[in-house]
Write a structure and sequence with these properties.
The structure is a homodimer of 305-residue chains. Chain A has 305 residues and is of the alpha/beta class. The first copy, chain A, has a single domain, classed as Aldolase class I (TIM Barrel, Alpha-Beta Barrel), CATH 3.20.20.70. Chain A is built from 13 helices and 8 strands. Chain A has an 8-stranded parallel barrel with strand order 1-2-3-4-5-6-7-8, surrounded by 8 helices. In chain A, helix 7 links the parallel strand 5 and strand 6. In chain A, helix 4 runs parallel beside helix 6 and helix 8 packs parallel to helix 9. Chain A starts with a strand and ends with a helix. Chains A and B meet through helix 8, helix 9, helix 10 and helix 12 of A and helix 8, helix 9, helix 10 and helix 12 of B. Chains A, B: Keywords: Lyase, Metal-binding. Chains A, B: One of its GO terms (molecular function) is hydroxymethylglutaryl-CoA lyase activity. Chains A, B: It comes from Ramlibacter tataouinensis (strain ATCC BAA-407 / DSM 14655 / LMG 21543 / TTB310).
């Protein structure tokens, strides 16, 4: 079971403050030292659109020096993918909004335009002889603030289309925090029938408190990689003040308590959360474990196992 | 599916501030108007031990005037039960700590002493020709801050013992917020084998963020009554600053989103939460829904259904 820490991308992208590159490098070092082995470190988007992620190449280069660390980046299009390939990211995640309305508003492309771009990305990756894994993240897959409901049938259709276009891995994202565990179960079962083991990753926001319940539902279906952000950063721009991604430390506790090995050091994780609060001064952090600490019944040797 | 609002008892019992009786009566009226149909309104304990609940008889009398409202009280012993019977509570909940250490520290009785007291309570109830339902709440059933682990076998033994002693309904409580969904599933399956439908209620704290995930696990096993507190009040005295019970409004949202009818009016619930903040001025409230609001995809007619 892998927790992919996405704070450096999904956390920072909606925070206006720019975290200095030196702090990002320390963040990555500390996350690695705490036992995290997959990090989404940034996004190859034009710097004028997202100046806070303009140092993604430098951050990625640093992450690639740490032993055993899988460093991924988000790429919105072929141009971004070409950078990810050139900079030798271990994986690149192409987001595809299952909501037509969100896709147009966000990327000025229809979902099917993105499918076509994914085919071009796969061709470019193969032509370069690159090993960068091509993951497609189906976003707004459980509802959309613009469009409202997103039919499961459309999600399934798009999953099949991106697999045909060459996606190697599928993640499903509840981008705006609309999911509940029953919705997760229904949708994921359908996607698994199409994608099998290639659908192995889920991404939940905790906007309305259901983030960990949704993670639990995903676990029950065999999902092996869950995205999260230390301190639950990454609030949704459509829900001001709402908490963002599932908090890494709380998800790690859920897994450890259930006896699922994570290899994480909770003291180190919580110490990093404290430094994050400093770097993001003024931004609210979320989560529960930092306040209550580990329960007496959770043995440290179990946690580390 | 019933949400039992326990803020007037579990929420208030650890808050030093005494809420005026008039405010409690308004709280009950508003909770009833928002659609809540089961309330734990107080506890028949000596006033010197818990002055903030000293008006329980008056509060209960008011709750009994509201149509369709089931009003329960906590009773620690026969003396309290005699008051609950005399005041015609619809139900009385006798707590029994599955943790030997907690039972001694809290009640100066062993769990088996409490079993014997439950037999006396059942006899007194029957002798009075009373209709007050006798519920036993197995507390610290998923771990204890004093004792650490509480063996499931001991919980099961005690459930059988209290059923033999005359308990009509069993609830299981994660008093200190140590549970995870896998623990809930394992323990509840064992208790259901012993108690069948008489085990129908669960009580979770959200100390480490797993409250709603645990509720979801309980729902999957057929539990039909869940305790909660508006604003997630009821922090654990052993985890200062930690959030308390599962927040009623978040649990209501979980259920409504899953299509489980609750009959609750979210606007009224959140308005009452606001008044609660006023009455408890200075006490932290918790939960997520109040910040983000209902998602666009949840239709109001579905919520009310």
């Amino acid at each position: 079971m892998t927790i992919r820490e996405v704070g450096l991308r999904d956390g920072l992208q909606i925070i206006p403050r720019t975290v200095p590159t030196a702090a990002k490098l320390a963040w990555i070092r500390d996350a690695h030292a705490a036992g995290l082995r997959e990090l989404e470190v940034g996004s190859f988007v034009p710097a004028r659109l997202m100046p806070q992620l303009a140092d993604t190449a430098e951050v990625l280069a640093h992450a690639r020096t740490l032993p055993g660390l899988v460093a991924s980046v988000l790429v919105p299009n072929l141009k971004g993918a070409e950078r990810a390939i050139a900079e030798e990211a271990h994986a690149m995640l192409v987001p595809l909004s299952a909501s037509h309305a969100h896709s147009l508003a966000n990327l000025r492309k229809t979902p099917d335009d993105v499918v076509a771009e994914i085919a071009r990305i796969r061709a470019a990756r193969d032509a370069a002889g690159s090993h960068t894994v091509l993951e497609v993240g189906i976003s707004t897959a459980l509802g959309c603030t613009l469009q409202g409901e997103v039919p499961a049938s459309e999600v399934v259709r798009l999953v099949q289309a991106v697999l045909d276009a060459g996606a190697e891995r599928i993640s499903i994202a509840d981008t705006v925090g609309y999911a509940d565990p029953a919705m997760v179960t229904r949708l994921f079962e359908q996607v698994l029938r199409v994608a099998g083991e290639r659908f192995d990753t889920a991404h939940f926001h905790d906007t309305r408190g259901l983030g960990l319940a949704n993670c639990y539902a995903a676990l029950q279906l065999g999902i092996v990689r869950l995205d999260a952000c230390l301190g639950g950063i990454g609030g949704c721009p459509h829900a001001p003040g709402a908490s963002g991604n599932v908090a890494t430390e709380d998800l790690a506790y859920l897994l450890a308590s259930m006896g699922i090995a994570t290899g994480l050091d909770f003291d180190a994780l919580l110490a990093l959360r404290g430094r994050l609060a400093h770097w993001l001064e003024g931004e609210p952090l979320h989560g529960s474990l930092w306040r209550a600490g580990l329960p007496k019944t959770l043995r440290r040797e179990e946690v580390a196992a």
